[in-house]
Structure formats: structure tokens, C-alpha cells
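Researcher: Can you fold this with D-xylitol-5-phosphate in place?
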Amino acid sequence: MSPRIKVAPSLLSADFSSLAKDIKRVEKAGADMLHVDIMDGHFVPNITIGPLIVKYVRKVTKLPLDVHLMIENPKKYINAFLSAGSDMITAHIEVVSIKEIKAMAADLKAQGVKFGIALNPSTPLSRIKPVLKFVDFVLIMSVNPGFSGQVFIPSVLIKIRELRKIFKKDIAVDGGINALTGKKVRNAGANILAAGSYIFGAKNTKKAIDSLR
Ligand code: DX5
Ligand code: ZN
């Protein structure tokens, strides 16, 4: 049986001048968690938010916070994001060693926080195979990380399918997800769908979220 489909609205597309209101909106519309994109201007060309804002997001919602670290040195900041109230933390395979992953996995497990490994569209699946046993989920990027509103890269579907054959836990997909691409990634075996512009740009938030299940 395939795992339940979960929808993770990405706050990157929310209106930060009324963030609490936007969070309530997706919460009411049935979001399963909130996807929070952390960018440092080094690993990716963009800069977004840090632990301070995550702490305030934590105050206004009970939804699990799925914190996607697109930063060069995740190990250095992981404790700050834990104290801020993260429930799930994802680091990128492109910037962490297997040794660091092992240590982070043990650390997060001890604190009851789920740990995920992310990989960019151009990073082959073989890079994460040695660490699959240490992680709770894999986040497959379907755009080059850095910005919301980009177009889904269809070649990642093969990666999702291949991963599903060997990995029974959660597979998340992030980037360019809408009703159409959502269906494709679900069929390929993904079960957590992160979506920013599609959900926050929709007239009917509930309909948009439902269409991804
Ligand atoms: C991209 C981020 C994504 C982004 C998704 O670097 O990691 O989470 O917010 O936005 P959409 O769904 O608009 O592609
Ligand atoms: Zn993301």
C-alpha cells in the first residue's frame, strides 16, 4: 500500500506582510504541514529567512514545520532551527558528508525530529543511496532550488520511480508542483507534495490543496 499523500504549502509564496493570516488560510484548507524554505545566498542565489521567523511561524500554527535548509553549512545552524520549533529538517546531499549525515540523523532522532535528505535535479540518485538508511524521508527537487514559481523538470520523474523501488519511507517532491505535475509525481511514487505558487496563488486554497491529493 502506498503511504498517504500529504500536502506541504511552501511559505516562500505566502504574503510575509500578513504571514499569520496566510498560514491560517492553508491550515484551514487542509494543509498537512508547512514547508519553510531557508536560503543563504551561497548554496542558492537567493536569501530568505532564518530561525527568528521560524520561531514566529511556530507560534501561530500547530502544523508540523518542514524546514528545508538550502544552506551551505546545515550542521552549523541545525540547533538554531531546532530551538525555533522545527518538526522536520532537510539538508542537501550536495553540501554534507556521509559522516555529518550520520551525526545529524542520530541527533535529530534523539529529539524526535524527522530528518530528510534533499537532492537537486542534476544530482544522481546514486549520491543518496549510502545514506538512505539514516533518513526518514527524501526530498527530490523538481526545480533548481532558489525561487518559487519555476517550471517542473520532468526528468525527475524517473528518479522518483527508481527511488520508490528501493525506499519505503516518505518521498517528498518540491518545485513546480500543480494539479498536473502533482498527479505525475504521485503516480511515480511520491507522497509528500510541497507547493508554493500553486497553492498561495490559487483563488480557492482548499480546492488547490485537494487537487494535489
Ligand atoms: C525552491 C523551494 C521550493 C519553492 C516551491 O527552491 O525549495 O519549496 O518554494 O515553489 P513552487 O511550488 O512555486 O515551485
Ligand atoms: Zn523547498
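Model: Folded with D-xylitol-5-phosphate in place. Residues 121 and 141 are 6 Å apart (CA to CA).
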